[in-house]
Amino acid sequence: MSKLKFNNNYIRNAKKPEKIQEIVESMIAEKVNSKPFDFLFRRNSESYTKTTHEVLGLPGIFKQMETPNVFTINGKSLQQDLVESVLPDGKIIMQESTLNVEQQAYIITPAKVEHLYFYKIFNIGKHEKPCIPVIVTNIDYKTDEILYKINGEFFTIRIIYFSKEKIDIILNTLSEKDYSKEEMSEADFINLVHCIIFATKEHAKEVIEKIVKIFVSCEKIQDKHQMDLFLALKIMIKYRYDDEKEIRRLLTMITQSVSEKQLEQVLGYEELIQKNKDSEIKLAEKDRIIAEIKEENKKLRNKIKKNK
Fold first, then answer.
1. pTM exceeds 0.85 for this model
2. Cα separation, 56 vs 97, whole angstroms
3. Which residues are within 8 A (CB) of 108 and not within 5 positions of it... i.e. 6 or more apart?
4. Can you list the alpha helix ranges (DSSP code H) found in 134-265?
5. Which secondary-structure segment (H or E) carries 1?
6. pLDDT tens digit sequence for 140-157
7. Cα–Cα distance between 264 and 270 in angstroms, integer?
8. What is the pLDDT of residues 17-30, one digit of tens each?
9. Residue 82: HSE in the Cβ half-sphere, 13 Å Cα cutoff
């Protein structure tokens, strides 16, 4: 493993301890994200869909991302983690299909199976093509595909497993890279976020420490990637650690590593993302209502024509 180096941002920002301390204390005072795994997986999958497809090794050739919102007949709003359309790859996908990809931090329950089946049927009806459910998890099911039966119909769920060994390989590989000479790629950044998300409770702190070291030593990284990796670390540090001294130490390290330009955006970044997401859901619900009104008007016009 390469020796720990501090990037230039760390050195410059270290000269502004009062500002860094103020930001860190504000982050400590923020409410802990109660659903960090869903939030981070959805956030990064939606923002970097094609790269996520490639990094996870999802079946098919990525075509485009689809809206993950689901509205039930009783007006309830649900959201899938990730939905994308894929083209045939000649191996698993033989015709254009959709993938419903879900992050799963616990054993698949009967209720979850029913949800996945409902999503599958919903996506088939909405997109008029086959749908394949995929679970990404750190639970070892000893298989990459599980067969279920609901309503007399058999359907399969594909499994992508993040083992401790897989995470260790990713971190060891990326720790050897010199990000003072080469820019951190989008694939490397997504891999790091996945390691944060899928590290088990027992190994989470070890993984966070390793990624903090990579983050602190990284000089060449796109602003957007730096902000999103910072956000992932901040959220999981606050979620995984109970010792405020350790939380403060790690948050201080990553905050000192952010560029001065990005430093001003750090505090409101998570809130901004959540507001944007809420706005997207409201717009999707508005579009659904408009579509339902148009359909009702169409039925009414057809009924009037028949009665003439």
1. no
2. 17
3. 135, 146, 157
4. 164-175, 186-198, 204-217, 223-240, 244-256, 260-263
5. none
6. 999 999 999 998 899 999
7. 13
8. 788 888 899 889 98
9. 32
